[in-house]
Amino acid sequence: MKKLGFVSLLVALALGTVLAQFGGGRRGFRRGDDGDYDTAQTARDVRQHGDYETPMWTNAPGFEKDVFTFVRIHRERNYSGEGGSWWTDAPDSDLNLSYRLQQMTSLKVNPDGRFLQLTDKQLTEYPFIYMVEPGSLALSDQEATTLRNYLLNGGFLMLDDFWGDFEWQVMEHEIKKVFPDRNFEDLPLTHPLYHCVFEIREKAQCPNVDNGNRQERDPNAMIWEKGPSGREVHHRVIRDDKGRIMVFAAHNTDNGDGWEWEGNNHYYFEHFAEKIAYPLAINVIFYAMTH
């Protein structure tokens, strides 16, 4: 398996450390059909089934592939778990995040995004992959082996939007198929990941859009999910033998809703999308692509 190529993206990322301020929320996009999307399909292909268009942009001719592409993993669902499907928040979360990345950094970004299975041959072309709702994660032996090789050869996996102790245990059990001898560890706020673009000073919670909007009406409203064990946000990682982060797990928080529903209302954008979901994602992607 070939090493993943990051070098061509470093210059663009290095220039992105000074960002423009967020300019306020846009109208949120209605999500596309929750059907069983084809593997290797682009997120924008799915978006065309909705009523709204996402912003479109082009990259320099001849360099269409020399860009960052947000890749969501298409996977099977473990029905013994409590998490949702692999397409939760798709495609709008993927497309909105891609738009914000190219808008507020000098990173060149693919406007389409991709849906891939772990067994797709194209996987090695993309150094960053995203899994949502891993509280229902299910990995075959082949997928576990492929993911292990991908990560050890320089790839990076972000896990997001799963809540409570049980969903953590389901996810951790499946990731143990990938790395039986490696454990998750809490990432301290002193780590460079939290300071590479935005200054992140706390592991803040991004609720789902309904809970976030409920807080606008009642400041004391519960915004977390799955009971008491869903209250505290955890950022945990798995490293390789050299200390490089290979897996970043955002537990008890829903960054994907922050990206998807950033324009739902001003309160949700200002308190959750702008302050939590986007800064964390941009820092994670920046760190993943430069280390």
Shape: globular
Strand order of the largest sheet: 3-1-4-6-9-8-7
Mean pLDDT: 85
CATH class: Alpha Beta
N-C termini distance: 20 Å
CATH level-3 fold name: Rossmann fold
What is the share of helical residues? 25-40%
Main sheet specs:
7 strands, mixed
Strand content: 5-15%
Summed up, the domain count is 1
Let me know the CATH homologous superfamily. Answer: Domain of unknown function DUF4159
Low-confidence stretches: 1-35
Helices and strands, in order, run as HHEEHEEEHEHEHEEHH
CATH architecture: 3-Layer(aba) Sandwich
User: What is the CA-based Rg, rounded?
Assistant: 18 Å
Structural class: alpha/beta
Compute the number of strand runs.
9
Number of helices: 8
Molecular structure report:
The chain is α/β, with parallel strands linked by helices and 291 residues long. The chain contains 8 helices and 9 strands. The protein has helices at 7-14, 43-47, 92-104, 141-152, 164-178, 209-217, 255-260, 266-290; strands at residues 71-73, 76-77, 114-116, 128-132, 137-138, 156-160, 185-186, 234-239, 245-251. The strands form 2 sheets. Strands 3-1-4-6-9-8-7 form a 7-stranded mixed β-sheet. A two-stranded antiparallel ribbon has the order 2-5. Helix 4 (141-152) packs across helix 5 (164-178).
Summarize the structure.
With 291 residues, the chain is α/β, with parallel strands linked by helices.
